[in-house]
Each structure stands twice: as C-alpha cells, then as structure tokens.
C-alpha cells in the first residue's frame, strides 16, 4: 500500500499552477536505500519494492539478495534461503548471493552446504575476506581445523589487522591463553561485514 500523498499547489513563473506530490513517509522514498539500511523489517520491505522495480536479472538478484540478508538478520533462515535461491536463479554470477546463501545454510545448521556456497562465492571473488571468515567458521563446526587455519591465514594476508581472524587462529593453534573459546555459530560475516 502506498503512503498517502500530500498535494502541494505552487504558482509557476508564468502564473500556471503546478501540482507537486511528496510522500509522507521517508521509508517509501527510496527502495534501494531502504533495502540497504534500517531495521531488517524495513530492509525486507525496501528490497521487495526494489524487486518490483527490477528490470534486469542483476537487479532482481541484488534485490533478492538484499532481502535474503535482511531475513538472515531476522533469523528467518528458511526465508533467506528462498530469496538467495531466487537471486541465484536470476543471476548465477552474483557472488554475494552464494555468500549469503552459505550463511543461510549455516543458520540452518548445514555447514557442508554452507562451505559449498562459500567456495562458489570465492571462485568468483577470491579476495572476499568475509566469505573466507565464514568458511573458516563452517570448517571449525565440522572439526576441520587445518582448513579453518588456512582460511584465517588468508584473511590475515588480505587484512592484516583483522582481530577476529587473529583471535581465531590463536584459539585454533592453542596459543590463546585465557581467550574465550571459538564459536563458529554466533558471528557470521555478511555482505556488509561481520556481525
């Protein structure tokens, strides 16, 4: 449903009357902005409006992937999976959709499927450090410490100041001292960064 519009009447230079409409709600002003920022619910709505405006497969993929990420933030992993699947059907060369679908799979406790999607995202964008971080966490979940260490080391090669990767490596190598234990399930990294 569209927001009510307020009609303003202004006098033009030649004495003509022009009608101008302004939306009463800023949440409906820019679907692309709403898709990227705000609460997860606002982002779902913004991405849905953006999807309705999409004209190309890549635009559909971006809108569906944005809604996928908003659903991940809501903890609605099954909905996220549906949206990411749609994004991949729209454009199977959009790496963020594979990345976010991997997070959705991880949220659904399927680390093997998550790793498969993280691998696909990394095949398209090998320097995507968030994907490397998430794949490392999925490897930890599966008990594959060596693979996790390789991914964390690659993150540090790309981003030497990444404290999360440093800490995780210390834990995995047994040099953490009194550091908290590594928890692969509570801090997945999305398109916008780690949460």
Automatic annotation (TrEMBL):
Q: Which UniProt keywords apply?
A: Repeat, Signal, TPR repeat
* Keyword Transferase in annotation: no
SUPFAM superfamilies on file: TPR-like (SSF48452)
**Pfam families documented for this protein:** TPR_1, TPR_8
Query: Could you confirm whether the keyword Signal appears in this record?
Result: yes
Q: Which PROSITE patterns match?
A: TPR (PS50005), TPR_REGION (PS50293)
**SMART domains from the xrefs?**
TPR
Tell me the ranges holding the TPR repeats.
95-128, 129-162
Q: Which Gene3D superfamilies match?
A: Tetratricopeptide repeat domain (1.25.40.10)
Endpoints of the signal sequence: 1-29
Q: Which PANTHER family match?
A: TETRATRICOPEPTIDE REPEAT PROTEIN 6 (PTHR44858), UDP-N-ACETYLGLUCOSAMINE--PEPTIDE N-ACETYLGLUCOSAMINYLTRANSFERASE SPINDLY-RELATED (PTHR44858:SF1)
Name of protein: Tetratricopeptide repeat protein
């Amino acid at each position: 449903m569209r927001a009510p519009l307020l009609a303003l009447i202004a006098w033009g230079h030649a004495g003509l009357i022009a009608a101008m409409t302004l939306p009463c709600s800023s949440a409906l002003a820019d679907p692309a902005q709403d898709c990227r920022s705000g609460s997860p619910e606002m982002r779902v709505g913004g991405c849905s409006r953006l999807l309705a405006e999409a004209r190309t497969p890549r635009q559909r993929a971006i809108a569906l992937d944005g809604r996928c990420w908003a659903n991940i933030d809501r903890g609605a992993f099954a909905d996220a999976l549906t949206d990411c699947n749609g994004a991949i059907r729209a454009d199977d060369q959009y790496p963020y959709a594979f990345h976010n679908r991997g997070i959705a799979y991880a949220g659904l406790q399927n680390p093997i499927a998550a790793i498969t999607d993280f691998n696909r995202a990394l095949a398209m964008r090998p320097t995507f450090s968030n994907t490397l971080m998430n794949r490392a966490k999925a490897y930890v979940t599966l008990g594959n410490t060596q693979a996790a260490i390789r991914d964390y080391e690659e993150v540090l090669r790309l981003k030497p100041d990444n404290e999360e990767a440093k800490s995780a490596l210390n834990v995995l190598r047994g040099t953490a001292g009194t550091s908290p234990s590594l928890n692969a399930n509570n801090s997945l990294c999305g398109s916008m960064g780690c949460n």
